[in-house]
Amino acid sequence: MPTKSSKKAAAKPKAGARKKAAPKATRVERRAKPAARTIVKLVASKPRPPVVEKPKVEKPRVEKPAAAKPKTIEAVRPKPVEVPKVVDAKPKIEAKPKMVEFVFEKGDFVVYPTHGVGRVVDIEAKQIAGQTLDLFVISFEQDRMTLRVPVAKARTSGLRKLSSRKIMDSALVTLKGRSRVSRAMWNRRAQEYEAKINSGDPVSIAEVVRDLHRNAGQPDQSYSERQIYEAALDRLARELAAVERIDKDAATLKLQSVLKQAA
Q1: Is residue 109 within 8 Å of residue 136, measured between CB atoms?
Q2: Model-level pTM greater than 0.70?
Q3: β-strands 116-128, 109-112: how paired?
Q4: Do 154 and 129 lie in a common domain?
Q5: Rounded to whole angstroms, how far apart are CA atoms 152 and 101?
Q6: Helix-strand-coil percent breakdown of the chain, rounded to 5?
Q7: ∠ CA 118-124-126, rounded to 5°
Q8: Nearest-10 Cα torsion for 133, 139, 245, 169
Q9: Contact, 123 vs 151, CB < 8 A?
Q10: 160-161 and 145-150 beta bridge pairing
């Protein structure tokens, strides 16, 4: 058994022997160790609370509506509805061609705007370009001219019946009025006078006769004025003669007497 003296001798270091120096801790270890200890102490000092698992609540799933597919052109177009065919028991009757209504009859006096008073001598049918056309055959005896006007275009061409006595009376009243001569150039006035004569309106023609008429104390007419005046007077006298059923010369004398009374 070892004795106490031997234990002490063993415990005491020998004189002259160098103690082994403990290894120096690095700066990192010095800083890390106390922190580690504190963490251990904190963890050890505070007991962890028991973990309570919360029951999972399942949310109801909301199904999203499926995206509508784009409609194609065939889906947009309405489908044709089949209509049942109705069969007529009665036989079909072919429509008869409409009869052409003749505005004028054979022997009537008519007025064509650019030619004056004429007479319907016949209504004839002619084949023109593969079509049958009904034509009024109008004779102008004084001009020795025959004019054919399609029946379908009689109204649009200006062909009309003789004026009534009321219209002729208003034309005679116009002759009694004052002449109205514009200050425009003669070429312009001549065009206006010719347009009035070709209109076929008795009142407008009477205005031309009134404006171009010259009395004894007034200056004479020029050659062109005289021509237009005679054309207007002749056109008005022919219609007045046809309306009152008198001679043309008698109708001309009547118009001239009205003009003298106005002067």
Answers
A1: no
A2: no
A3: antiparallel
A4: yes
A5: 9
A6: 40, 15, 45
A7: 125
A8: 70
A9: yes
A10: unpaired
CB 202 within 8 A of CB 236: yes
pLDDT greater than 80 at residue 64: no
Question: What is d(CA 207, CA 228) in angstroms, rounded to the nearest whole number?
Answer: 12
Whether residue 59 is predicted with pLDDT greater than 50 in this model: the reply is yes
CATH of the domain at 119: 2.40.10.170
First to last CA, the chain: 190
Tally of CA atoms within 13 A in the half-sphere of 65 that contains its CB? 3
Total domains in the chain come to: 2
Q: Same structural domain for residues 144 and 201?
A: no
Report strand pairing: 131-140 vs 145-150: antiparallel
* Residue 155: closest CA among 202, 195, 100: 100
**How far is CA 49 from each of CA 41, 46, 171, 202, 238, rounded to the nearest angstrom?**
17, 9, 129, 127, 136
**Which of the four pLDDT bands, split at 50, 70 and 90, describes residue 40?**
very low
Q: So what's the pLDDT on residue 47?
A: 59
Residue 39, pLDDT above cutoff 50: no
Is 246 part of a structural domain of the chain?
yes
Locus of tokens 């009309």:
160
- Model confidence band, residue 34 (pLDDT cutoffs 50, 70, 90): low
pLDDT averaged over every residue in the chain: 76
| Domain range for 124 | 109-161
Q: Quick one: pLDDT at residue 126?
A: 87
